[in-house]
Amino acid sequence: MQLERINYPALAAPVGPYVHAVKHQHTLYLSGLTAFGSAAQGQPVAQQAAEIFRQIAAIAAAEGSDLGSLIKVTAFVTSFDDIDSLRLALFEIYQQRLPASSLVQVAALFSPAIDIEIEAILALPR
Fold first, then answer.
1. Would you kindly state where each structural domain of the chain is located, as residue ranges?
2. What span, in angstroms and rounded, lies between the C-alpha atoms of 87 and 46?
3. What CATH fold (topology level) applies to the domain 3-12+20-123?
4. What is the pTM of this model?
């Protein structure tokens, strides 16, 4: 089994013992991404989500794909208080290309300025 561990130059370098993504055959597994270090850090959850999906779109583009190739998205949020704006933002991002999805509330993420972390799985072109 051949696995390719990848860090993308368009994203900030990982700050821990992980890579941005691992590719296995035609599937790409993304580590949890956040808005940390971006202008969206500390902003409402919908803005943080938009930044994260900008990063996911950049990764997909680097692999010759786009957000339409999302298979599964898992979002970890620190609060459901602003869930309606998050859902609206996600519908705008996904449009008609809805992935399988999970939304989990967690007690905290690694920084108090971060309200959402998103993991994703993408299908890659052959």
1. 3-12+20-123
2. 8
3. 60s Ribosomal Protein L30; Chain: A; (3.30.1330)
4. 0.95
